[in-house]
Amino acid sequence: MTTAPGGGAPPPRRTDARLNRDRLVAAAREVFAASGPGASLNEIARRAGVGPGTLYRHFPNRQVLLAAVLTDRVEALCARAGELLAEESLSADEVLARWAEAFLAHARDQQGVGSALLTDASYDLGVDCHRVIVDAAASVLAHAQEHGTARCDLAAADLVQLVTGVALATVHAGDAGQAGRLLSLTLDAVHAAPRKGRALA
Amino acid sequence: MTTAPGGGAPPPRRTDARLNRDRLVAAAREVFAASGPGASLNEIARRAGVGPGTLYRHFPNRQVLLAAVLTDRVEALCARAGELLAEESLSADEVLARWAEAFLAHARDQQGVGSALLTDASYDLGVDCHRVIVDAAASVLAHAQEHGTARCDLAAADLVQLVTGVALATVHAGDAGQAGRLLSLTLDAVHAAPRKGRALA
DNA sequence: TACGATACGGAGAACCTCTCCGCTTGGCTA
DNA sequence: TAGCCAAGCGGAGAGGTTCTCCGTATCGTA
Protein backbone atom coordinates (compact mmCIF):
# COMPACT_ATOMS: atom_id res chain seq x y z
CA MET A 1 0.00 0.00 0.00
CA THR A 2 2.72 2.39 1.04
CA THR A 3 5.52 0.92 -1.06
CA ALA A 4 6.64 3.09 -3.93
CA PRO A 5 6.50 1.63 -7.44
CA GLY A 6 10.22 2.23 -7.91
CA GLY A 7 11.08 -0.34 -5.28
CA GLY A 8 14.01 1.66 -3.92
CA ALA A 9 13.81 3.25 -0.50
CA PRO A 10 11.90 6.55 -0.62
CA PRO A 11 14.58 9.20 0.07
CA PRO A 12 14.19 10.53 3.62
CA ARG A 13 13.21 14.21 3.72
CA ARG A 14 15.14 16.81 5.57
CA THR A 15 13.37 17.99 8.71
CA ASP A 16 13.05 21.60 7.56
CA ALA A 17 11.49 20.37 4.32
CA ARG A 18 8.92 18.32 6.22
CA LEU A 19 8.18 21.28 8.46
CA ASN A 20 7.65 23.58 5.51
CA ARG A 21 5.41 21.06 3.84
CA ASP A 22 3.22 20.87 6.93
CA ARG A 23 3.11 24.65 7.16
CA LEU A 24 2.06 24.86 3.53
CA VAL A 25 -0.73 22.34 3.93
CA ALA A 26 -2.03 24.15 7.01
CA ALA A 27 -1.94 27.50 5.25
CA ALA A 28 -3.59 26.02 2.17
CA ARG A 29 -6.40 24.61 4.30
CA GLU A 30 -7.12 28.05 5.73
CA VAL A 31 -6.84 29.95 2.48
CA PHE A 32 -8.86 27.47 0.41
CA ALA A 33 -11.55 27.52 3.08
CA ALA A 34 -11.67 31.30 2.92
CA SER A 35 -11.39 31.84 -0.84
CA GLY A 36 -12.34 28.56 -2.48
CA PRO A 37 -10.29 26.17 -4.58
CA GLY A 38 -9.19 28.96 -6.93
CA ALA A 39 -7.38 30.89 -4.22
CA SER A 40 -3.98 32.43 -4.94
CA LEU A 41 -1.08 30.03 -4.40
CA ASN A 42 1.17 33.01 -3.75
CA GLU A 43 -1.05 33.97 -0.86
CA ILE A 44 -0.74 30.46 0.54
CA ALA A 45 3.04 30.58 0.33
CA ARG A 46 3.05 33.99 2.01
CA ARG A 47 0.76 32.75 4.75
CA ALA A 48 3.02 29.76 5.32
CA GLY A 49 6.03 32.04 5.54
CA VAL A 50 7.86 30.49 2.60
CA GLY A 51 8.72 31.62 -0.92
CA PRO A 52 6.66 30.64 -3.96
CA GLY A 53 9.50 28.44 -5.15
CA THR A 54 9.22 26.31 -2.04
CA LEU A 55 5.51 25.86 -2.56
CA TYR A 56 6.01 24.73 -6.14
CA ARG A 57 8.79 22.33 -5.23
CA HIS A 58 6.54 20.54 -2.77
CA PHE A 59 3.36 20.81 -4.84
CA PRO A 60 3.98 21.13 -8.58
CA ASN A 61 0.43 22.26 -9.24
CA ARG A 62 -2.82 23.24 -7.59
CA GLN A 63 -4.35 19.78 -7.78
CA VAL A 64 -1.55 18.18 -5.82
CA LEU A 65 -1.91 20.77 -3.10
CA LEU A 66 -5.67 20.28 -2.99
CA ALA A 67 -5.15 16.55 -2.72
CA ALA A 68 -2.72 17.03 0.16
CA VAL A 69 -5.20 19.26 1.98
CA LEU A 70 -7.92 16.68 1.60
CA THR A 71 -5.97 13.55 2.34
CA ASP A 72 -6.98 13.35 5.98
CA ARG A 73 -10.59 14.04 5.16
CA VAL A 74 -10.61 11.35 2.54
CA GLU A 75 -9.18 8.92 5.04
CA ALA A 76 -11.83 9.94 7.56
CA LEU A 77 -14.49 9.29 4.97
CA CYS A 78 -13.21 5.82 4.27
CA ALA A 79 -13.00 5.07 7.96
CA ARG A 80 -16.57 6.28 8.30
CA ALA A 81 -17.69 3.73 5.74
CA GLY A 82 -16.12 0.98 7.81
CA GLU A 83 -17.68 2.24 11.02
CA LEU A 84 -21.13 2.46 9.54
CA LEU A 85 -20.88 -1.00 8.06
CA ALA A 86 -19.80 -2.39 11.43
CA GLU A 87 -22.66 -0.81 13.30
CA GLU A 88 -25.23 -3.54 13.69
CA SER A 89 -28.18 -1.36 14.60
CA LEU A 90 -28.19 0.33 11.20
CA SER A 91 -30.01 -1.01 8.18
CA ALA A 92 -28.15 -1.23 4.90
CA ASP A 93 -30.30 1.62 3.65
CA GLU A 94 -29.35 3.82 6.58
CA VAL A 95 -25.67 3.03 6.16
CA LEU A 96 -25.81 4.14 2.57
CA ALA A 97 -27.75 7.28 3.41
CA ARG A 98 -25.49 8.29 6.27
CA TRP A 99 -22.35 7.73 4.27
CA ALA A 100 -23.72 9.69 1.33
CA GLU A 101 -24.52 12.56 3.68
CA ALA A 102 -20.99 12.51 5.05
CA PHE A 103 -19.60 12.44 1.55
CA LEU A 104 -21.77 15.35 0.46
CA ALA A 105 -20.66 17.38 3.45
CA HIS A 106 -17.07 16.58 2.55
CA ALA A 107 -17.51 17.55 -1.06
CA ARG A 108 -19.26 20.80 -0.22
CA ASP A 109 -16.77 21.67 2.47
CA GLN A 110 -14.34 24.50 1.97
CA GLN A 111 -16.31 25.98 -0.89
CA GLY A 112 -16.19 22.87 -2.98
CA VAL A 113 -12.54 22.08 -2.64
CA GLY A 114 -13.36 18.39 -2.43
CA SER A 115 -15.62 18.52 -5.45
CA ALA A 116 -13.04 20.42 -7.42
CA LEU A 117 -10.64 17.57 -6.91
CA LEU A 118 -13.08 14.79 -7.62
CA THR A 119 -14.29 16.39 -10.79
CA ASP A 120 -10.84 16.51 -12.27
CA ALA A 121 -10.30 12.91 -11.34
CA SER A 122 -8.03 12.42 -14.32
CA TYR A 123 -5.32 14.61 -12.87
CA ASP A 124 -2.23 12.56 -12.24
CA LEU A 125 -2.04 12.79 -8.49
CA GLY A 126 -5.71 13.25 -7.82
CA VAL A 127 -6.39 9.72 -9.00
CA ASP A 128 -5.45 8.13 -5.70
CA CYS A 129 -7.90 10.26 -3.80
CA HIS A 130 -10.60 9.45 -6.28
CA ARG A 131 -9.96 5.74 -6.25
CA VAL A 132 -9.95 5.55 -2.48
CA ILE A 133 -13.32 7.27 -2.33
CA VAL A 134 -14.80 5.10 -5.02
CA ASP A 135 -13.62 2.03 -3.14
CA ALA A 136 -15.33 3.21 0.01
CA ALA A 137 -18.50 3.92 -1.93
CA ALA A 138 -18.29 0.46 -3.45
CA SER A 139 -18.25 -1.25 -0.07
CA VAL A 140 -21.27 0.67 1.18
CA LEU A 141 -23.13 0.24 -2.07
CA ALA A 142 -22.44 -3.47 -2.35
CA HIS A 143 -23.76 -3.97 1.17
CA ALA A 144 -26.95 -2.13 0.25
CA GLN A 145 -27.30 -4.11 -2.95
CA GLU A 146 -26.93 -7.41 -1.12
CA HIS A 147 -29.75 -6.37 1.16
CA GLY A 148 -31.90 -5.39 -1.80
CA THR A 149 -32.10 -1.75 -0.80
CA ALA A 150 -30.13 -0.37 -3.73
CA ARG A 151 -30.62 -1.08 -7.40
CA CYS A 152 -28.15 -3.59 -8.75
CA ASP A 153 -27.36 -1.80 -12.00
CA LEU A 154 -25.62 1.07 -10.24
CA ALA A 155 -21.84 1.39 -10.15
CA ALA A 156 -19.93 2.93 -7.27
CA ALA A 157 -18.28 5.46 -9.57
CA ASP A 158 -21.71 6.63 -10.69
CA LEU A 159 -22.87 7.01 -7.12
CA VAL A 160 -19.83 9.11 -6.31
CA GLN A 161 -20.32 11.23 -9.37
CA LEU A 162 -24.00 11.80 -8.60
CA VAL A 163 -23.28 13.10 -5.13
CA THR A 164 -20.38 15.12 -6.47
CA GLY A 165 -22.80 16.66 -8.93
CA VAL A 166 -25.15 17.64 -6.13
CA ALA A 167 -22.23 19.24 -4.33
CA LEU A 168 -20.97 21.10 -7.37
CA ALA A 169 -24.39 22.38 -8.30
CA THR A 170 -25.14 23.67 -4.83
CA VAL A 171 -21.81 25.06 -3.68
CA HIS A 172 -22.90 28.57 -4.60
CA ALA A 173 -26.60 28.05 -4.05
CA GLY A 174 -28.34 30.68 -1.99
CA ASP A 175 -30.91 28.14 -0.87
CA ALA A 176 -29.32 26.50 2.16
CA GLY A 177 -31.49 23.40 2.22
CA GLN A 178 -31.19 22.62 -1.45
CA ALA A 179 -28.21 20.29 -1.16
CA GLY A 180 -30.04 18.15 1.35
CA ARG A 181 -33.17 18.01 -0.79
CA LEU A 182 -31.21 17.01 -3.87
CA LEU A 183 -29.31 14.34 -1.98
CA SER A 184 -32.56 12.93 -0.66
CA LEU A 185 -33.87 12.78 -4.19
CA THR A 186 -30.72 11.12 -5.43
CA LEU A 187 -30.98 8.49 -2.74
CA ASP A 188 -34.53 7.81 -3.82
CA ALA A 189 -33.11 7.11 -7.26
CA VAL A 190 -30.52 4.74 -5.88
CA HIS A 191 -33.24 2.92 -4.01
CA ALA A 192 -35.79 2.91 -6.79
CA ALA A 193 -36.26 0.18 -9.35
CA PRO A 194 -35.49 1.22 -12.91
CA ARG A 195 -38.49 2.70 -14.70
CA LYS A 196 -40.28 0.40 -17.07
CA GLY A 197 -37.63 -2.20 -16.60
CA ARG A 198 -35.02 -0.01 -18.27
CA ALA A 199 -31.73 -0.80 -16.61
CA LEU A 200 -28.77 1.51 -16.99
CA ALA A 201 -26.61 1.01 -20.05
CA MET B 1 -40.54 42.31 -22.28
CA THR B 2 -38.14 44.36 -24.39
CA THR B 3 -38.89 47.74 -22.83
CA ALA B 4 -36.13 49.09 -20.68
CA PRO B 5 -36.95 49.96 -17.07
CA GLY B 6 -35.92 53.57 -17.63
CA GLY B 7 -38.85 54.12 -19.95
CA GLY B 8 -36.80 56.17 -22.42
CA ALA B 9 -35.91 54.72 -25.82
CA PRO B 10 -32.82 52.53 -25.59
CA PRO B 11 -30.07 54.50 -27.38
CA PRO B 12 -29.49 53.08 -30.87
CA ARG B 13 -26.05 51.56 -31.30
CA ARG B 14 -23.65 52.63 -33.98
CA THR B 15 -23.25 50.05 -36.72
CA ASP B 16 -19.55 49.46 -36.09
CA ALA B 17 -20.31 48.85 -32.43
CA ARG B 18 -22.94 46.28 -33.31
CA LEU B 19 -20.55 44.62 -35.74
CA ASN B 20 -17.83 44.40 -33.13
CA ARG B 21 -20.23 42.97 -30.61
CA ASP B 22 -21.23 40.24 -33.03
CA ARG B 23 -17.60 39.50 -33.80
CA LEU B 24 -16.85 39.22 -30.10
CA VAL B 25 -19.70 36.83 -29.44
CA ALA B 26 -18.64 34.66 -32.37
CA ALA B 27 -15.03 34.61 -31.21
CA ALA B 28 -16.12 33.89 -27.64
CA ARG B 29 -18.18 30.94 -28.81
CA GLU B 30 -15.15 29.43 -30.53
CA VAL B 31 -12.69 30.11 -27.76
CA PHE B 32 -14.97 28.96 -24.94
CA ALA B 33 -15.67 25.78 -26.88
CA ALA B 34 -11.95 25.16 -27.26
CA SER B 35 -10.75 26.14 -23.80
CA GLY B 36 -13.77 26.03 -21.51
CA PRO B 37 -15.52 28.82 -19.61
CA GLY B 38 -12.29 29.99 -18.02
CA ALA B 39 -10.67 30.86 -21.35
CA SER B 40 -8.64 34.05 -21.68
CA LEU B 41 -10.75 37.08 -22.53
CA ASN B 42 -7.71 38.70 -24.12
CA GLU B 43 -7.53 35.79 -26.50
CA ILE B 44 -11.18 36.32 -27.41
CA ALA B 45 -10.59 40.00 -28.12
CA ARG B 46 -7.55 39.14 -30.21
CA ARG B 47 -9.50 36.52 -32.14
CA ALA B 48 -12.27 39.04 -32.78
CA GLY B 49 -9.74 41.57 -34.05
CA VAL B 50 -10.51 44.21 -31.42
CA GLY B 51 -8.68 45.59 -28.40
CA PRO B 52 -9.34 44.40 -24.86
CA GLY B 53 -10.96 47.73 -24.05
CA THR B 54 -13.63 47.10 -26.66
CA LEU B 55 -14.42 43.70 -25.21
CA TYR B 56 -14.82 45.12 -21.73
CA ARG B 57 -17.01 47.98 -22.91
CA HIS B 58 -19.46 45.54 -24.47
CA PHE B 59 -19.19 42.88 -21.79
CA PRO B 60 -18.15 44.22 -18.39
CA ASN B 61 -17.31 40.76 -17.09
CA ARG B 62 -17.00 37.13 -18.06
CA GLN B 63 -20.53 36.20 -16.99
CA VAL B 64 -22.12 38.73 -19.28
CA LEU B 65 -20.13 37.41 -22.20
CA LEU B 66 -21.03 33.83 -21.34
CA ALA B 67 -24.67 34.83 -21.15
CA ALA B 68 -24.46 36.48 -24.55
CA VAL B 69 -22.90 33.38 -26.07
CA LEU B 70 -25.65 31.20 -24.66
CA THR B 71 -28.66 33.41 -25.29
CA ASP B 72 -29.70 31.69 -28.48
CA ARG B 73 -29.24 28.26 -26.97
CA VAL B 74 -31.34 29.18 -23.97
CA GLU B 75 -34.08 30.40 -26.24
CA ALA B 76 -33.90 27.19 -28.24
CA LEU B 77 -34.25 25.22 -25.05
CA CYS B 78 -37.37 27.11 -24.01
CA ALA B 79 -38.86 26.71 -27.47
CA ARG B 80 -38.13 22.99 -27.23
CA ALA B 81 -40.18 22.78 -24.04
CA GLY B 82 -43.13 24.33 -25.86
CA GLU B 83 -42.75 22.01 -28.83
CA LEU B 84 -42.57 18.89 -26.70
CA LEU B 85 -45.60 19.93 -24.69
CA ALA B 86 -47.57 20.55 -27.89
CA GLU B 87 -46.74 17.17 -29.38
CA GLU B 88 -49.72 14.99 -28.66
CA SER B 89 -48.11 11.64 -29.32
CA LEU B 90 -45.76 12.04 -26.37
CA SER B 91 -46.59 11.04 -22.84
CA ALA B 92 -45.91 13.51 -20.04
CA ASP B 93 -43.11 11.24 -18.91
CA GLU B 94 -41.50 11.28 -22.34
CA VAL B 95 -41.79 15.04 -22.60
CA LEU B 96 -39.95 15.43 -19.34
CA ALA B 97 -37.27 12.92 -20.30
CA ARG B 98 -36.69 14.45 -23.73
CA TRP B 99 -36.47 17.95 -22.39
CA ALA B 100 -34.08 16.90 -19.64
CA GLU B 101 -31.88 15.25 -22.27
CA ALA B 102 -31.84 18.43 -24.32
CA PHE B 103 -31.03 20.45 -21.25
CA LEU B 104 -28.21 18.13 -20.28
CA ALA B 105 -26.73 18.37 -23.75
CA HIS B 106 -26.95 22.13 -23.52
CA ALA B 107 -25.30 22.24 -20.10
CA ARG B 108 -22.51 19.91 -21.14
CA ASP B 109 -21.91 21.76 -24.38
CA GLN B 110 -18.79 23.78 -24.80
CA GLN B 111 -17.02 22.20 -21.85
CA GLY B 112 -19.66 23.21 -19.38
CA VAL B 113 -20.10 26.82 -20.39
CA GLY B 114 -23.82 26.51 -19.84
CA SER B 115 -23.38 24.88 -16.47
CA ALA B 116 -20.88 27.50 -15.42
CA LEU B 117 -23.48 30.15 -16.00
CA LEU B 118 -26.31 28.30 -14.33
CA THR B 119 -24.27 27.47 -11.27
CA ASP B 120 -23.42 31.07 -10.62
CA ALA B 121 -27.04 32.03 -10.94
CA SER B 122 -26.62 34.88 -8.52
CA TYR B 123 -24.46 36.85 -10.92
CA ASP B 124 -26.19 40.07 -11.82
CA LEU B 125 -26.77 39.51 -15.50
CA GLY B 126 -26.91 35.75 -15.46
CA VAL B 127 -30.16 35.80 -13.56
CA ASP B 128 -32.29 36.27 -16.65
CA CYS B 129 -30.85 33.20 -18.30
CA HIS B 130 -31.38 31.19 -15.18
CA ARG B 131 -34.95 32.32 -14.65
CA VAL B 132 -35.91 31.60 -18.22
CA ILE B 133 -34.61 28.05 -17.94
CA VAL B 134 -36.30 27.44 -14.62
CA ASP B 135 -39.57 28.66 -16.12
CA ALA B 136 -39.24 26.22 -18.99
CA ALA B 137 -38.46 23.42 -16.57
CA ALA B 138 -41.48 24.41 -14.50
CA SER B 139 -43.85 24.05 -17.44
CA VAL B 140 -42.56 20.60 -18.33
CA LEU B 141 -42.48 19.48 -14.73
CA ALA B 142 -45.97 20.75 -13.92
CA HIS B 143 -47.32 18.85 -16.91
CA ALA B 144 -45.68 15.67 -15.68
CA GLN B 145 -46.95 16.22 -12.17
CA GLU B 146 -50.51 16.73 -13.38
CA HIS B 147 -50.27 13.40 -15.15
CA GLY B 148 -48.93 11.72 -12.05
CA THR B 149 -45.61 10.82 -13.62
CA ALA B 150 -43.45 13.06 -11.48
CA ARG B 151 -43.43 13.39 -7.73
CA CYS B 152 -45.31 16.44 -6.51
CA ASP B 153 -42.80 17.56 -3.91
CA LEU B 154 -40.22 18.49 -6.53
CA ALA B 155 -39.53 22.11 -7.49
CA ALA B 156 -38.44 23.18 -10.94
CA ALA B 157 -35.32 24.85 -9.57
CA ASP B 158 -34.32 21.56 -7.98
CA LEU B 159 -34.82 19.71 -11.24
CA VAL B 160 -32.64 22.21 -13.06
CA GLN B 161 -29.98 22.00 -10.40
CA LEU B 162 -29.97 18.20 -10.47
CA VAL B 163 -29.37 18.05 -14.19
CA THR B 164 -26.81 20.83 -13.90
CA GLY B 165 -25.05 18.72 -11.31
CA VAL B 166 -24.94 15.77 -13.67
CA ALA B 167 -23.47 18.03 -16.32
CA LEU B 168 -20.87 19.56 -14.03
CA ALA B 169 -19.80 16.22 -12.63
CA THR B 170 -19.36 14.67 -16.06
CA VAL B 171 -17.88 17.49 -18.10
CA HIS B 172 -14.41 16.08 -17.67
CA ALA B 173 -15.43 12.46 -17.31
CA GLY B 174 -13.49 10.01 -19.41
CA ASP B 175 -16.47 7.65 -19.46
CA ALA B 176 -18.54 8.83 -22.40
CA GLY B 177 -21.81 7.18 -21.42
CA GLN B 178 -21.74 8.28 -17.81
CA ALA B 179 -23.74 11.48 -18.28
CA GLY B 180 -26.55 9.52 -19.90
CA ARG B 181 -26.56 6.92 -17.15
CA LEU B 182 -26.66 9.54 -14.43
CA LEU B 183 -29.47 11.42 -16.14
CA SER B 184 -31.45 8.22 -16.45
CA LEU B 185 -30.99 7.64 -12.75
CA THR B 186 -32.01 11.16 -11.92
CA LEU B 187 -35.16 10.79 -13.96
CA ASP B 188 -35.97 7.65 -12.04
CA ALA B 189 -35.76 9.76 -8.90
CA VAL B 190 -38.09 12.36 -10.34
CA HIS B 191 -40.50 9.64 -11.21
CA ALA B 192 -40.22 7.70 -7.98
CA ALA B 193 -42.36 8.10 -4.93
CA PRO B 194 -40.52 9.35 -1.87
CA ARG B 195 -38.99 6.58 0.23
CA LYS B 196 -40.89 5.64 3.35
CA GLY B 197 -43.28 8.48 2.79
CA ARG B 198 -40.52 11.01 3.40
CA ALA B 199 -41.28 14.02 1.26
CA LEU B 200 -38.66 16.66 0.54
CA ALA B 201 -38.30 19.38 3.13
C1' DT C 1 34.40 20.49 12.36
C1' DA C 2 33.99 20.32 7.47
C1' DC C 3 31.67 19.05 3.50
C1' DG C 4 28.16 17.99 0.01
C1' DA C 5 23.51 17.18 -1.02
C1' DT C 6 19.19 19.14 -0.11
C1' DA C 7 16.15 22.81 0.27
C1' DC C 8 15.30 27.70 0.49
C1' DG C 9 13.91 32.46 -1.20
C1' DG C 10 13.01 35.84 -4.15
C1' DA C 11 13.81 38.04 -8.62
C1' DG C 12 11.68 37.85 -12.82
C1' DA C 13 9.32 36.23 -17.19
C1' DA C 14 5.03 35.55 -19.10
C1' DC C 15 0.45 35.78 -18.73
C1' DC C 16 -4.18 37.49 -17.15
C1' DT C 17 -7.91 40.92 -15.95
C1' DC C 18 -9.48 45.36 -16.18
C1' DT C 19 -9.00 50.74 -16.65
C1' DC C 20 -8.02 54.96 -18.67
C1' DC C 21 -7.46 58.31 -22.15
C1' DG C 22 -6.21 60.29 -26.61
C1' DC C 23 -7.55 59.40 -31.29
C1' DT C 24 -10.81 57.86 -34.96
C1' DT C 25 -15.13 57.51 -37.19
C1' DG C 26 -20.19 56.99 -38.02
C1' DG C 27 -24.22 59.44 -38.60
C1' DC C 28 -26.76 63.62 -38.18
C1' DT C 29 -27.49 68.41 -39.42
C1' DA C 30 -27.01 72.48 -42.09
C1' DT D 1 -21.66 67.88 -49.71
C1' DA D 2 -19.10 69.53 -45.65
C1' DG D 3 -18.47 69.70 -40.94
C1' DC D 4 -19.26 68.60 -36.31
C1' DC D 5 -19.36 65.79 -32.05
C1' DA D 6 -20.59 62.06 -29.37
C1' DA D 7 -20.00 57.24 -29.59
C1' DG D 8 -16.70 54.05 -30.02
C1' DC D 9 -11.98 52.29 -30.67
C1' DG D 10 -7.21 50.58 -29.43
C1' DG D 11 -3.55 49.85 -26.79
C1' DA D 12 -0.53 51.21 -22.99
C1' DG D 13 -0.13 50.05 -18.47
C1' DA D 14 -1.23 48.93 -13.42
C1' DG D 15 -1.63 45.26 -10.54
C1' DG D 16 -2.44 40.63 -10.01
C1' DT D 17 -1.33 35.64 -10.98
C1' DT D 18 1.36 31.22 -12.07
C1' DC D 19 5.58 29.10 -12.40
C1' DT D 20 10.98 28.91 -13.13
C1' DC D 21 15.69 29.52 -12.23
C1' DC D 22 19.75 29.96 -9.66
C1' DG D 23 22.77 31.78 -5.99
C1' DT D 24 22.72 31.04 -1.12
C1' DA D 25 21.83 28.89 3.34
C1' DT D 26 21.14 24.93 6.01
C1' DC D 27 20.84 20.04 7.49
C1' DG D 28 22.86 15.72 8.46
C1' DT D 29 26.82 13.02 8.14
C1' DA D 30 31.66 11.60 8.19
Topology overview:
2 copies of one chain form a homodimer.
Chain A: H1 15-35, H2 41-48, H3 52-58, H4 62-86, H5 92-119, H6 126-146, H7 156-170, H8 178-191
Helix pairs in contact in A: 1-2, 1-4, 1-5, 4-5, 4-6, 5-6, 5-7, 5-8, 6-7, 7-8
Chain A binds a DNA duplex (30 and 30 nucleotides) through helix 1 and helix 3.
Pfam family, one (chains A, B): TetR_C_43
Keywords (chains A, B): DNA-binding, Transcription, Transcription regulation
GO molecular function (chains A, B): DNA-binding transcription factor activity; transcription cis-regulatory region binding
Describe the model.
With 201 residues, chain A is an all-alpha fold. Chain A has two domains: 14-59, Arc Repressor Mutant, subunit A, CATH 1.10.10; 69-194, Tetracycline Repressor, domain 2 (Orthogonal Bundle), CATH 1.10.357. Helices cover 69% and strands 0% of the residues of chain A. Chain A has helices spanning 15-35, 41-48, 52-58, 62-86, 92-119, 126-146, 156-170, 178-191. In chain A, helix 5 runs antiparallel to helix 6 (126-146), helix 5 (92-119) crosses helix 7 and helix 5 packs across helix 8 (178-191). At the A-B interface, helix 7 and helix 8 of A face helix 7 and helix 8 of B. Chain A binds a DNA duplex (30 and 30 nucleotides) through residues 11, 13-17, 20, 40-42, 50-57, 60-62.
